């Protein structure tokens, strides 16, 4: 066991946090369950600390990430997070210390020095080496890594071997994984399936890792198919990290379901090369080709008109596309933990059990830990990716949309929503660029689709019940049956949304569980249900399984299914079982003359008292005197101390 000296040297370019145009910054380091903190520096945006901590460092490389946070100290109110930086140090050399200025995920840079102390006989530190690449955390991360998509160069050794075992991944994706993992085939396979690069020796559970019994209980409730022993081993393998342990367990469940159902006629793995070729032949392009034209404005909804009612089932074309969006909102008061993890789990589920292929023509993932700014979930990138998903869709095509992050509400200016409120999803830059409303999603994601196209959407966020403005809701009151949402839009295509909660609910208890959960409540429940019975559960059975999973974990919200078509709910759930159009009229029915629906409640009322509610200004006037006093106290503190 070696030691690592970590020195927080200074910072520069920080964003002002106090009314005097300055800040009182200090730094926290989170590592192996411990928190280290520097002294605060008053009234400065260029603080200097030069404080050093010594950490026990595993020589085998089995070390967690180093997480640094810069905070602004306030005397009378809670301290403010100014920025965050996550780093993974590998291949340290005792003879070469590391020093560099590393960008925070908001604004400014943190100057750090690392000195690895090896055995006594090793040489003392000499000249600094090139700084390591920090783990990306923000949409303004400076440099994009080289792209290997579509590379004409020779594939690295091991590409064909992995592609033969996992044909759903294109050779370009596999080559990229091998390069990221320095040719390690096992590590590259883990990166493809679970979304992270394992450290040396991390594949073996360590019996020395102390496992939190509460974490075991929580993960057993999340994934009831897993035994306590399996959960304990996953936590040991993940060094106690619940988020990574969840990914490991879901991956294990998917692999077991894949093996158990390998002889089922519904089970097949897509051939990535064939999927890509089919989309290329139809004129479909890679997501990168849509960046130059940017995100188009949402088209207006068509006038309410008579539709073309289809007859007979639609045969799947074999072409499938998927868009995954996961946002953890790093560096904000409302940061989340599990959303990026959700995209990895859903992607693995679809590729392993439901015939989707991972190529640049068939899958796009937007997360706020991306290095490439084109794949960061800004508002513009999200709308561009939605355009990519729907562009060129033809009868028989199967599409999938997944969003895991924050949801909210806005007052409906048209007065057509039944509750008077528009449901919204929040891009990573929502405070600057704005939210995306359900009206926009309806116009851009579902309205352009022709009859015979199937779109399945999963939205794991607050206020997501009618997040696509679909006309039919599957209700369980007195037995499962269809009801009509009077504010819904009738469509030609076969569109289905499974949402994390109803419109007036918050997803996963906004009082705390939502912000600390290692995975989104709805996504994790969906993965658990699909791995337990991938091909033979009816829609009522699926919804009952989702509700039971959430209820057993103490979550009060109720998942909801909405659809553009009233189909037979006793048929087995499937992504590619396409229902023909049965709607005689298309579009949103015109409102009754003189009737305008007003909000039944204040927008985002359920978010009052939560970090997101604070960012949205919810409840700011509720305790005016208390808040005003706290603000005055902060002003005096900034000026006097």
From TrEMBL:
Residues 211-254 form the CUE domain. Residues 119-164, 262-296, 581-607 are annotated as: Disordered. This is C2 domain-containing protein. InterPro entries: C2_dom, C2_domain_sf, Caspase-like_dom_sf, CUE, Metacaspase, Pept_C14_caspase, UBA, UBA-like_sf. GO terms for molecular function: cysteine-type endopeptidase activity; ubiquitin binding. Keywords: Autophagy, Immunity, Inflammatory response, Innate immunity, Membrane, Transmembrane, Transmembrane helix. Residues 266-281 have a biased composition (Low complexity). The chain crosses the membrane at residues 605-632. Residues 210-252 form the UBA domain. It comes from Chromera velia CCMP2878. PANTHER family: METACASPASE-1, METACASPASE-4. Residues 594-603 have a biased composition (Basic residues). The keyword Ribosomal protein does not apply. Residues 121-145 have a biased composition (Pro residues).
């Amino acid at each position: 066991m070696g030691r690592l000296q970590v020195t927080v040297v200074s910072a520069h370019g920080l964003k002002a946090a106090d009314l005097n145009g300055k800040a009182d910054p200090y730094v926290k380091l989170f590592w192996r369950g411990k928190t280290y903190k520097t002294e605060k520096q008053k009234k400065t945006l260029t603080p200097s600390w030069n404080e050093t901590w010594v950490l026990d460092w595993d020589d085998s490389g089995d070390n967690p990430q180093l997480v640094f946070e810069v905070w602004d100290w306030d005397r009378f109110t809670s301290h403010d997070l100014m920025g965050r930086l996550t780093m993974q140090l590998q291949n340290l050399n005792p003879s070469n210390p590391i020093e560099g200025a590393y960008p925070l995920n908001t604004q400014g840079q943190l100057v750090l020095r690392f000195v690895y102390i090896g055995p006594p006989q090793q040489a003392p530190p000499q000249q600094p080496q090139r700084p390591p690449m920090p783990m990306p955390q923000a949409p303004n991360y400076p440099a994009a890594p080289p792209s290997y998509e579509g590379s004409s160069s020779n594939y690295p050794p091991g590409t064909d071997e992995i592609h033969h075992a996992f044909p759903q991944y294109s050779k370009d994706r596999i080559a990229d994984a091998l390069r990221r993992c320095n040719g390690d085939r096992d590590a590259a396979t883990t990166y493809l399936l679970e979304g992270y690069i394992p450290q040396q020796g991390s594949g073996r559970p360590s019996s020395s890792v102390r496992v939190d019994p509460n974490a075991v209980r929580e993960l057993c409730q999340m994934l009831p198919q897993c035994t306590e022993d399996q959960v304990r081993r996953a936590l040991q393998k993940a060094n106690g990290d619940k988020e990574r342990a969840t990914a490991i367990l879901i991956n294990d469940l998917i692999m077991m379901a894949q093996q158990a159902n390998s002889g089922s006629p519904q089970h097949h793995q897509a051939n990535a090369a064939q999927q890509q070729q089919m989309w290329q032949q139809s004129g479909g392009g890679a997501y990168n080709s849509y960046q130059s034209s940017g995100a188009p404005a949402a088209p207006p909804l068509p006038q309410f008109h008579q539709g073309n009612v289809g007859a007979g089932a639609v045969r799947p074309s074999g072409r499938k596309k998927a868009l995954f969006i996961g946002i953890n909102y790093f560096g904000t008061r409302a940061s989340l933990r599990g959303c990026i993890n959700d995209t990895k789990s859903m992607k693995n589920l679809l590729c392993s059990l439901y015939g989707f292929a991972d190529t640049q023509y068939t899958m796009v993932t937007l997360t706020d830990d991306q290095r490439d700014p084109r794949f960061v979930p800004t508002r513009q990138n999200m709308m561009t990716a939605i355009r990519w998903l729907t562009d060129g869709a033809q009868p028989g095509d199967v599409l999938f949309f997944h969003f895991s992050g924050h949801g909210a509400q806005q007052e409906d200016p048209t007065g057509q929503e039944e509750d008077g409120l528009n449901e919204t999803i929040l891009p990573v830059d929502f405070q600057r660029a704005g939210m995306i409303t359900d009206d926009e999603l309806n116009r851009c994601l579902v309205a352009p689709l022709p009859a015979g196209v199937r779109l399945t959407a999963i939205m794991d966020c607050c206020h997501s019940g009618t997040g696509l403005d679909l006309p039919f809701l599957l209700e369980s009151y007195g037995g499962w049956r269809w009801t009509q949402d009077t504010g819904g839009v009738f469509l030609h295509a076969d569109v289905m949304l499974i949402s994390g909660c109803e419109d007036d609910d918050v997803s996963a208890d906004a009082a705390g569980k939502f912000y600390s959960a290692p995975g989104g409540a709805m996504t994790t429940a969906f993965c658990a249900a699909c791995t337990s019975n991938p091909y033979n559960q009816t829609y009522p059975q699926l919804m009952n399984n989702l509700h039971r999973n959430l209820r057993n974990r103490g979550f009060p919200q109720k998942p909801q299914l909405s659809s553009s078509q009233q189909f037979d709910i006793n048929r087995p759930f499937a992504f590619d079982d396409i229902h023909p159009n049965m709607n005689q009229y298309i579009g949103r029915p015109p409102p009754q003359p003189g009737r305008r629906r007003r909000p039944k409640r204040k927008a985002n009322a359920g978010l009052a008292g939560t970090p997101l509610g604070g960012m949205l200004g919810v409840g700011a006037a509720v305790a005016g005197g208390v808040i005003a006093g706290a603000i005055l106290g902060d002003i005096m503190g900034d000026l006097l101390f």
